[in-house]
Amino acid sequence: MQSKLLAVLAVGAFAGAASAQSSVTLSGIVDAWVGQTHHKVGVNPPGTGFVVDSGGAQASRWSLRGTEDLGGGLKTNFVLEQGISIDNGTVSTVSNSNIGFNRAAYVGLSGNFGELRAGRMLGAFDALRGSTNHLYDSSGFASTGQVWGAGTTAANGLAAVTGSDYLARGNNTVMYITPTFGAFSGSVSTSASEGAATATANPRMVSAHAKYAQGPARIGYSYQTENFANGKNRFHLVAGNYNFGPMNMVGAFQRQTDERIAGHQTSKEWELGLDAPFGAATVAIGYASAVTENSAGTKVVDAHGLSLMATYDVSKRTRFYTAFRQLKTERADGSVSLDASRFGVGVTHKF
């Protein structure tokens, strides 16, 4: 009897030690907003509509995250994360995927050397761009993605103009994140197309970023090239933020060259954002602009957007918000191909 008791205690002690060195957590964000959309131009017929939507402030998702301490400063890590559309209970479309763990699915090793990951994940380019976007990179109300990816429909004898923005995530990705060297850090990632690249999806990608962070200031440079079946889409980004104390400023300049377009087209883009906390409340404003030229140097798209958001933290896990966004896109002759706005109130709950 005594030997059995000792065996049970030994097994319990071993299990306790193992659990102390490893962990798996379930977490996520549930975000929904209710409001109104208004289209003067861009849909037929134009008009105003009532909306219940997901991910106004932050994209709704759930995730499993795990880590195990292997000793000597070495750890294994994994993340499985799926986007959710709260308004209809389905899997949301994230980086051309609406199945499985579409936000992230990777395993990695971390230690004094940095971190190495393999799977589907946000790339090195997004590590800088996402963190320097206005309105805290708001999923539903930040203007940057829509403005920088703007195209136009055909009208007035002008041809349609194709617009695109960067791919934030890649399949079949390997990523290395450096440790911090003084004030410097960075990352590099590559995604294999595995022979499945098309004109719009699953390209072979290479991206990298480096940044300097010291005190209230941070500035960095990021690069990404996407190799599609019919050409390359390239991005150069300089971005940063500065905390003034009562106010934080973010900003970015980006140059995009899309070689999938005959003769290629080039976009010059910028965005600026300010946010100021007032106790449990924060007010933020952002503006984005993009001018796209064809191979002859003629302006074919002029797009801009204004975003506003106010948040109030009810608790550590729950936040109320109200937000507004206005988007406008013009053709080469000054005619408008898109004039749309949205307004809403919502709640973000983290678990």
Automatic annotation (TrEMBL):
Keywords: Cell outer membrane, Ion transport, Membrane, Porin, Signal, Transmembrane, Transmembrane beta strand, Transport. It is found in: Cell outer membrane. This is Porin. Gene3D superfamilies: Porin (2.40.160.10). It holds the Pfam family Porin_4. Residues 1-20 form the signal peptide. The keyword Transmembrane applies. It comes from Rhodoferax ferrireducens. It comes from the Bacteria. It is a multi-pass membrane protein. Its main location: membrane. Homotrimer. Residues 7-330 form the Porin domain.
